[in-house]
Structures are given as C-alpha cells and as structure tokens.
Amino acid sequence: MNYRTFGNTGLEVSEIAIGAYPISGMLQQADGTRTGWTGVSDTESEALIHGAEGLGVNLIDSAEGYGNGHSEIVTGKALKGRRDKWIVATKVQPNSGINEAGRDEAAVRNRIRQACEGSLARLEMETIDLYQLHAIPYDWAMPAVMETLATLKDEGKVRWYGISTNNQAAIEQLLALGPVDVLQIGYNLIEREADALLHWAKEKNIGTLIRVPLAKGMLTGKYFGKNAATLPAEDLRFERFQRQETVEGLKRLPELGFLQTKDRSMVQTALRFVLDHPGVSCAIAGAKTREQIDHNAAASDVTPISDEELERALPIADTITTPGWT
User: Fold this and answer.
1) Which DSSP string corresponds to 264-278?
2) For residues 307 and 311, what is the distance between their CA atoms, to the nearest angstrom?
3) What share of the chain is helix, strand, coil (3-state, %, to 5)?
C-alpha cells in the first residue's frame, strides 16, 4: 500500500480506503419492506476491516445515514483496540429536520451537535478524525454550521472537517467562513466533470477523498453488457441499474475491456485511473467481503494506465451516460 499526504491535515492516508456504505447491510422500513445491501453480514464486515488493516488501509468512511447508523456501529465494533491505526471519517446531513424557510440558526447548531454526538456513541469513540457535511447547508445556515464544527473541534470531538460535494461555489462559500480540510468528490472514468475541481483542491492543499470511483459498480466489469437484473429487488442498487441510462451504458462498457490486462483487473484499472489524478489523495472503494478489499487494495500497486490506453479509452467513456451518480 502506498500513502499520500492528506492535504493540510498532515496525515498520511492510504491510497485506498474502505467505503462503509455496503457494511450497513439491510434496513427494515416502516412499511415492513427491507432495502439496503444484500449479501452482507456484520461478522464478515468486521473481518474485512481487520483484513484491510493488515493490507495497510488506514481510512474508513461512513455516515450517520448509512443503514440508519448501522455502518457506524459495525465500524466501531471492528476498531475496538485498534483505533490508533485508523483515520475514521463519517458524515452528517446538515439540513435534516431543518425548515429551509425558518432560518433557525439555533436548530442548525443543535442538529450538527446532536448528530456528532450520535455518531460518536455509535462508533464508541471520543473523537471523529474527519467529520464531513453530507449535503450543502442552506445558504443562511452556513455560518451556524461552520461555527458549530469549529466548536466541536475545540472540544476535541472532531479533528478536521469538510464536505462531500462537487459544487465548487458552495465550497468557496464555506471556505469564506472557516477551514474546509477535506473534500469528498465524485469522480471516475466515465464521470470526469470534477477534473478541474480536483486540480483546484490540489492548489489549495485540500485533501480529497474520491467517492464512486467504480461508478456504483458499473466499472467493476461484473455487469458489462448486462442490465444487472440478477440483483435482488430489495438491493438499493436495483432501481438504479434498471434506468435506461444505466442499461445503455452497460451495453457500451465492454468496449473498455481492453483496459484489463493480465496484471490489472477492471476494478483495479478504474481505481488506478482515479489515483493517477494529481489532485487525488485517496479513493474510497466499497467492499462487502475480504476478497473484495484484498482486490481493491492491490490497485495501489498496479501499473498506471498508459497515455496510449487513455487516448483510446476516454472517447469511449465520453459516450457513456449514467444517472448522475457523482
């Protein structure tokens, strides 16, 4: 595993991180139906986190909304006794329960604080290394949000904070109010709109975590030429894979098959593409099994994609549309 300096935090972060959404498993809905990630068990999730540690992975990214907090619970259990080996990142929805027209800054401050304390309780930790906004706050709420994050940092409940968005204008609004230490940005081979944002982040020395590097599974190669109908209907990816954009995209994706080599799978190629960007600190790769995390982690050491391969691949990638997953 290779490591990169994580922006101005000074941390050394592994090039591959664990995306902890899949380990949230299945969630029972109020109407009795179940939805979430199929084929997941807490025992295996804890084992894959331990296995990832042995491979040199040192960042895990969760959120309060992943399985209604279950992802954080599993993460906390897995990291007992090994907390010092990990950079723990999680996220908060700043607008949840907030009336956009109400302009109630006290409610906003209370929302951020209660969410943070809830995440800390589920994680069974005293400090969150990286606390990220999972959405752009309402304009009027931004000062209250940033003030509260700064207070939580002063109290030792968070070490650094940032936001998950590709909206540079919103990021600059927040930066005018205080530090934004890390950005979580959607970027992959077929969704490259954030290229300029990544270069800008590098200039600003802001660390970056890349979400959806595999385009929600489209770039794994598993579904090339198919419509992913084999996914169970309760799997949260099912509906997305039935959309016309996805179906048409999967028909075109086999044309990128030449990127796979005897030394580099399609998954590793997709992760390598992200890691080859100079503005990237770390790629977040979701995993449900130890085998998957082993495979993902190996992408840190595979051969970079050549200029000749990119020259052939990018025009194909530009013809493939998705339902806006970044």
Assistant:
1) B-HHHHHHHHHHTST
2) 6
3) 45, 20, 40
Local structure of 152: helix, strand or coil? helix
- Beta strands (DSSP E) in 123-220 are 128-133, 158-164, 182-186, 207-211
Tell me the pLDDT tens digit for each residue of 276-318. Answer: 999 999 999 999 999 999 999 999 999 999 999 999 999 999 9
Q: Give pLDDT, residue 228.
A: 64
Q: Is residue 321 helix, strand or coil?
A: coil
Residue 299's domain comprises 3-317
Determine the Cα angle at 163 with ends 149 and 192, to 5°: 170
**Contact between residue 215 and residue 283 where contact means Cβ atoms under 8 Å apart:** no
| DSSP labels, 49-69 | HHHHHHTT--EEE--TTTTTT
Q: Identify the bridge partners of residue 3 per DSSP, sorted by sequence position.
A: 14
- The HSE-up count of residue 274 (CA atoms within 13 Å, CB side) is 33
Report residue 160 as tokens: 């650094």
Share of the chain above pLDDT 90, in %: 81
Residues in the chain: 326
What total of structural domains would you count in the chain? 1
- Output the domain CATH number for residue 73: 3.20.20.100
Residue identified by tokens 């498993």 is 25
In the structure, how many helices (H) and strands (E) does the chain have?
A: 11, 12
pTM for the full predicted model: 0.95
Tokens encoding 271: 């992760």
| Residue 322 counted as domain residue | no
For residue 279 the two structure tokens come to 């503005």
156-203 pLDDT, tens digit each: 999 999 999 999 999 999 999 999 999 999 999 999 999 999 999 999
Q: Decide if 323 is inside a domain.
A: no
Region 9-31 average pLDDT: 89
Residue 262 lies in a domain: yes
318: Cβ–Cβ under 8 A, 6 or more apart, which residues? none
pLDDT at residue 256 greater than cutoff 80: yes
